[in-house]
Design goal:
- This protein is an alpha+beta fold and about 350 residues long.
- Strand 5 and strand 6 form a beta hairpin.
- Helix 4 runs antiparallel to helix 5.
Length: about 350
Amino acid sequence: MTTITKLACAALLLSLAAPAAAQTPEDKATAEALFKEGRRLMDAKDYPQACPKLEASQRLDPAVGTLFNLAACYELSLRTASAFATWRQVENLAGLAKQTSRQKYARDKANALESLVPKVVLEVTPTPGLIIKRNGVVVDPALWGLPLSVDPGAISIEASAPGYVTFTAALQAAESTQSKVAIPALVAEPVASPEPTSPPTPTPSPTPSPRPTPSPSMAPPAAVPPLPLTSGPVRHPRRKWAYVVGGVGLVTLGAGVVFGLMARSDWSTAEAHCDDDIVCDRTGYDAATDAQSAATLSTVLVSVGAAATVGGLVLWLTAPGVREMPAAAATSSLRPAAIGDLGLVWRGAF
C-alpha cells in the first residue's frame, strides 16, 4: 500500500472514529436498535425501509459492520452509485482494521459495480449568481463539467439565479450510461412595463335650456303695488293709568262701604246690650269695639277710594287727544255718623 493510500485510509478512519467518540451510551443503544430493525427489514426484502434505518444507526455509532450491511442494502435496492461508494468505504476501513476477508469482499463488490454506475455531466454556461440543484440538492460549482455518479432513475436538474428565468431539465439515468445536460445562460426576467394610462374622459358641460319666448298675445301681468300698512288708533298711556287708578279707587270705595255696613250692624248689637248710661255687658262691649274698628277702617277705605277715583278721572280728562271738558268744582266731606246712627256720610257737589 502506498503512502498516499495509507494516509487516505487513516483520514477516513479518523473521520469515522471522531463522531463515535462523541456518542453517549444512549446513542449507542439507539444505534443498536436501529441496526437490528434494518437487518430485520432486509431479511424481509423491504430494502426501501431498511436502508434509512441503517443510515441512522451509522450516524449515531459508526461501525464497519453497519457500513457493510448498508452497502449491501444499497446494492439490493439497485442504487448502484450509492452501493459502489459505500463498498469502497468498507474496503478501506476493513483494511485498516486488518479484516482481510471483509476487505477483499468489499473490493470485489466495488469493482463489479464501478462500470455500472450511471454518470451525468453538467455543461454549464455561466450566469451571475447561478445555483444548480440535482434532485433538490445543490451541486458544488467545482463539480460542474465533471462526470457525476448518480443512482439509476429519474434525475431532475434546476438552474436558477436572481433576476433570471429558472431553467429545468429532466432525464432518466440508466446503468452503464453517461448523460449530458447543457445548461444555457439564463434569460433575464422581463421587466413589467407600466400599463399606459388613458387620459381622463372630459365631462361634457350641461347645455343651458332655452328660455321660453313669451307669446305676443299674452302680456306679462302688471305688478300689483303693495297695500299700505295701517295701524289702529293708539291710546295714550295716561288713559291706561286712568283705568287702573280709577278701578282701584272704585274697589276701595266698595270695601269701605262694606265695612261701614258691618260697623252699623255691630253698633246695633251693642245698643241692645248697653243701657242709657252706656254700661254694657261683655257682648255689648265686644260689639261696640268691633263697630268702632269697622267704622274707622271704613272711613280710611272710603277716603282712599274716593281719592283714587278722582285721580283716575283727572288722568282720563287730561289725556292728549281727548277733548277737555270743564270739570265742575267738586267738594266732598267724609265724617263718621253719630254714634246713634253709626255709618258714613259722604257729601259732595259736581
